[in-house]
Amino acid sequence: MNKMLGISLIVIGGLILGAGIIIVINSSPAKAESLNQAISLVMADGVLTPKEEKIIREIAKEEGKDGDFYVDQIRVELAASEDDSETELIDVNLKAGLDFEKFVVKKFNTEYYKIKNWAGDKYVEGVYAETTLHPDLNLELKLNGSNYPFAVECKWRSKRDSDFIRFAEQYQLERYQKFERDNGYPVFIVLGIGGKPSSPEELYIIPANHFKKAVQRKVRFAQLRKSLDKEFFFDAKKSTLK
Question: Quick check: 147 and 192 in contact, CB under 8 A?
Answer without folding.
Answer: no
